[in-house]
Protein: 5-methyltetrahydropteroyltriglutamate--homocysteine methyltransferase
Amino acid sequence: MSVITSVVGFPRIGAQRELKKAIECYWKGQSNVAALRATAQELRSRHWRLQAEAGIDLIPSNDFSYYDQMLDTAVMLGLVPNRYQDLGLNEEDTLFAMARGYQGSQGDVTALAMKKWFTTNYHYLVPELDSSTTIALSSSKPFDEFQEAKALGIHTKPVLIGPYTFLKLTRGPRGEQIKYDDQVVEAVSDVYAHVIRRFIDLGASWVQFDEPYLVLDKGEEDINLLRGLYSHILPARHSTRGSIQLLIQTYFGHIADCYEVVTHMGFDAIGLDFVEGGEDNLAVIQQVGVHEDTSIVAGVVSGRNIWKNNYTESLKLIDSLQELTPNLVLSTSASLLHVPLSVQAESELAPEVRDHLAFAIEKLGELHDLAYLTQEGNLVRQHDSLLTANQKLWSEQRVCTDVAVQNRLARLKPEDYIRQPSRSSRQPIQRQRLGLPILPTTTIGSFPQTNEIRSERARFSTGEIDSDQYNHFIAQRIDHVIELQEQLGIDVLVHGEFERNDMVEYFGQQLNGFLFTQNAWVQSYGTRCVKPPVIWSDISRSKPMTVRWSAYAQSRTKRLVKGMLTGPVTIFNWSWPREDISPQEQTQQLALAIRDEVLDLEAAGIRIIQIDEAALREKLPLRHTDWHKKYLDWAIPAFRLVHSGVKATTQIHTHMCYSEFNDIISDIDAMDADVISFEASRSDLTVLDAIEATHFETEAGPGVYDIHSPRIPSQSEIEERIRLILRKMSPTKVWINPDCGLKTRSELEAWPSIEHMVAAAHRVRAEVE
Ligand SMILES: Nc1nc2c(c(=O)[nH]1)N[C@@H](CNc1ccc(C(=O)N[C@@H](CCC(=O)N[C@@H](CCC(=O)N[C@@H](CCC(=O)O)C(=O)O)C(=O)O)C(=O)O)cc1)CN2
Ligand code: MET
Ligand SMILES: [Zn+2]
Structure:
């Protein structure tokens, strides 16, 4: 029996982040479109060849993107709002204007909203549909890339975001849900049918529709939408000129509640995630069965972790699947976009560590191994060195437990999770003690990470400068921004986070139990990448991590300086977790380490401490029934454990970005922070309704302008925003701040924006006082 292999999607940023560099160069006007296109093409061909050489059968194309695949799909369907078309820019620049906003000779427009892509640290742009949109095939990108690969002798499987997921994520101009009426369904499915026919003409054998939204809860109307869309699309697979096979690819969870429906719809292949939601997916196909004309594309190699596959476990699963269908395809559980490119670049990791790791390229090899071991059957498996080496790895104990950490966890009591006195009694005490004006202004923590700062850090890490020189440099930067913030009239200052490469990696580097990589970059949004640290063993803190710079900054001013920490849930969610112990346990270990830091900051005289939980929402289970028992019931207490030991007078802030908060608003209040700042300006302000409706107790700073865009907001637009906020919230509870930290902005963008923000706050303050 032959078993083929499929890859859902491949990383596109490049081994040396070539794509990031090429795009950023282009934005700065240092190169032209032709150079940008050349780099993109070079990367695509390199990545296709890698997969072909690894023996992958179904190699994806159209998984490349300059910015985001949802944005590309919006463009493909003609969802380019008039305000971007009116700029009259070329194709790439229109795309970038939608992604980042535009401010220049052609006009001034804000960007599309950006949201988290399911449970990942990847962010997509939210397509916008309004009554003036004409939905029609408007891009040749998928076809161009298919032909580009074909010219290299590589026959690819084009990948598209499927129409169901696309429509479920599309919003109206004010961020509202859209109506899935017959007209929209028909127009969208016409485009997809057209795309399929075009691929038949081009000679493609497969096309993959990504439908991750199917792993979410759904009602009857969702099933009707799914059926409605595909009943138009599926017939297009057979035309007079040939036929093509359609793969519906799901990932990030199971589709037990609609597998039966999907299986009757007539797809040629159904892609299922057997890593996340594997048990449910297996149970449902065992129960319902597999249609004889349908292949199961089994996601057995994780697209979400960096660990080697356990071949024995995978083969067990594959064997059960083979009992159900002879048409089995082995694949990654999700797109490899969410893992780094190759372990080969990690020369500084010990061999016994590297032995356990598999990034995108190594995962290709794993797929190939598993296909070989499946094909050859039991006889070969008994003697195969591939299998025995893998079994040996999994049979050995990888790490020892840290007894001190274990004991400390075992001693935790329920009262350790409760801060005293209650928040309502703390708030007046803090107000009086901190002496802040109404509508206090602040920022989220980081200031521009300029090339100069990054290159000084690079020079320090290569030994070109010593720690005294580097620390002197950081101190100077802090002096500079303390002075600037005083001049701008900000009420609560920050030190700027110049010493940090990243808000998570920085802590990982200082805590025991973490390992970090040199080049294991993963895309977060647009050209922005992260290098998540690896949780290798039990976590502890051996010495203060942030006190030095926070205390230094406070010593330079009479105004209040906020201490700045990353919370345990966020450190956990933005690291590569262990899989031998639970997420809850790892997060608790982190909580204890950060708790010690909070107390050290307090002892050093820091009176406001912000503990960022930017990623709190990220790993909220996609199925509602799992929210509390699988996540919030331990994640929220972990945050409380961090700050429950401080005095009533110490003000605890937290910060969150990108996420939808409405549906977990009471859980956020239950974190028991005194103040929260959150992203609000790129999304609708319905969160304010939720705040109003639930008597949200935490003081809040809904971001008054978007920091992910290079455009500078005017004072009046910020004033308008603040007035909007004050319609829903009592002025005594409102803080004025941007959406998020300013690290990604240039100085020329950051300071004028803050100046406008402070001026706007002062103006509105005068009105309410
Ligand atoms: N982990 C994490 N996830 C997050 C966020 C976040 O801040 N952290 N924010 C949200 C949005 N996502 C973001 C993700 C990344 C960045 C970001 O700015 N990333 C930087 C890299 C940050 C970094 O680690 N920088 C290192 C290494 C920088 C570097 O590129 N160095 C040069 C050498 C330096 C030189 O000579 O210029 C090189 O390696 O080539 C440092 O500062 O030390 C980037 O892509 O440009 C921003 C937002 C959501 N998810
Ligand atoms: C992604 S949330 C960022 C929070 C952090 N304190 C900063 O300002 O950069
Ligand atoms: Zn943020």
